[in-house]
Write a structure and sequence with these properties.
With 259 residues, the protein is α/β, with parallel strands linked by helices. Helices cover 29% and strands 19% of the residues. The protein is globular.
Length: 259
């Protein structure tokens, strides 16, 4: 039986992703789930994305950055926000334009088929994977959903990848996650930015290594692209968290942090 690994928000840091693959030694029957935001801000967004596309046991979820690029390229939704502020779209667009037409189409097709949410059960524990929020079970049921599902509305997709219980803007009521028996694994907001937690990174690392939880929500965005925003000198670099969903003998979960 293969193992299940989850990480999030790599943001173009191909080097950290490759270090992670070396550490976990991903076997053919293992699966690595990446909870979105593999592009923008970092040094090699499309090198990272193309590597993911070529690995059948690495599965990508839609993040808000993939949605921004998708909407810009197809003139949908809020197509102009990809270029705003620190979103990183200008740099990514510059690289994307230099790709061949075949590469561009393959990337867009792959993103269109990425996961929006996926539900798993591992060692008797239920996990609900998404970039940040979830689809309303009263509308969509408790099921796996890809971005190209014809039943989806753009507003619902936007909510899943933008709304968060850890943001003041695009806020998602945490109670939304506590009405089921799932642990919700999400990214989107780097643990370094959770100002109400002291110190945020330490608590997030404790959260995933010692099997404690903030209600039903585990945020595993290690802040690959957040070094300039680190809240304290003892945690001045972001990195890539990865969590294995199989329990250890003592009931804890193995995790690693790649810098």
């Amino acid at each position: 039986m293969g193992k299940h690994y989850v990480c999030s928000d790599i943001h173009g840091y191909l080097n950290r992703y490759l270090k992670l693959l070396d550490e976990i030694r991903l076997e053919a029957d293992d699966t690595l789930y990446i909870l979105g935001d593999v592009i923008d801000r970092g040094p090699d967004s499309f090198g990272l994305l193309k590597d993911i596309m070529n690995r059948p046991n690495v599965e990508l979820f839609l993040g808000n950055h993939e949605l921004m690029m998708h909407d810009f390229l197809l003139h949908k939704g809020m197509e102009n926000i990809w270029f705003l502020g620190s979103n990183g779209g200008k740099e990514s667009w510059s690289v994307y334009q230099r790709l061949s037409a075949k590469e561009q189409k393959a990337i867009l097709d792959y993103i269109s088929k990425s996961w929006l949410q996926k539900l798993l059960e591992v060692d008797g524990q239920k996990f609900w994977l998404s970039h940040s929020s979830i689809l309303d079970p009263c509308v969509y049921g408790f099921r796996d959903v890809r971005f190209d599902d014809p039943a989806l509305s753009w507003d619902d997709v936007f909510r899943v990848v933008w709304n968060s219980p850890f943001r003041q803007d695009e806020f998602e009521n945490p109670g939304w996650y506590y009405t089921d028996d799932y642990i919700h694994l999400i990214g989107h907001v780097p643990v370094q930015r959770m100002r109400f937690r002291q110190p945020p990174c330490v608590i997030a690392h404790h959260l995933i290594t010692n099997n404690t939880q903030d209600g039903g929500i585990w945020d595993i965005d290690g802040g690959c692209a957040t070094s300039p925003f680190a809240p304290s000198p003892d945690m001045d670099f972001g990195g890539l968290y990865c969590l294995r969903l199989e329990k250890e003998a003592d009931g804890s979960y193995w995790s690693t942090f790649i810098q």
